Structure formats: structure tokens, C-alpha cells
Amino acid sequence: VFLTELQSQDVPDGYPVSFDCVVSGKPPPSIRWFKDGKLIEENDHYMINEDQEGCHQLIITAALPSDMGVYRCMAENYSGIASTKAELRVDVSCSSDYDTAA
Asked: Do 11 and 90 form a contact (C-beta atoms < 8 A)?
């Protein structure tokens, strides 16, 4: 059961962003993170944290336009599966790499 759900985020290009949720279950469920249906593996770009209280966090160290999409946190134990999802939008209008039409 998700006590708090993921919230959609809107961040500027290059900024860090985190998705947070709180999960409760007996036994404690295993947690997996997905972007657009693909399993996220922890690496330099994605950091995954959890604590003893059931708080789970996915951190994107520097959001890129390619990170835009739907992120889902899935919790699973023998009682069943629960999931929460949110959308990430990356605002590139402030970036100097793009010409903006006036």
C-alpha cells in the first residue's frame, strides 16, 4: 500500500529531481522503479534510496530532455502488487543550447 503517492514534477534542464513515496506492507514489499515501462537500474544518472520507515526515493542527478516520461514505483509482496506513477517534464526553454522562437 502506498501511504504517499508519487507527484508529477516539472524541472529545468540540468537540474536534479527526486520522486518520493512511502510504502507499507507485511512482509515489506520489494520495490522496483520504471520509466515508460522499462526497469530503471541504479547508475550515475539514477540513484535509488530507501529507509527503514518505508520511504523510497528515485533521484535523477541532472534531468535531461530524454528523461521526460512517466515514472512508476511498483511494490510487490505475496499479498499482491501496488504501484504509483507520476510524470516528469523537463523545461528546456531556459537552456542556452536551444534557440527559442520569438
From this structure: yes
- Taking the C-alpha atoms of residue 17 and residue 34, their distance in angstroms, rounded to an integer, is 15
Interior/surface letters 66-84, b for 16+ CB within 10 angstroms, e for the rest: ebbeebbbbbeeeeeebeb
**pLDDT tens digits, one per residue of 2-19:** 999 999 999 999 999 999
pLDDT in tens, 38-49: 999 999 999 999
89 closest CA partner among 72, 68, 71: 68
Tell me the C-alpha distance between 35 and 92, whole Å: 20
pLDDT tens-place string over residues 27-39 = 999 999 999 999 9
Long-range contact set of residues 64-69: C-beta below 8 Å, sequence gap at least 24: 64/13, 64/14, 64/90, 65/13, 65/90, 65/92, 67/17, 67/35, 69/35, 69/36
pTM of the model: 0.88
Distance of CA 67 to the CA centre of its chain: 10
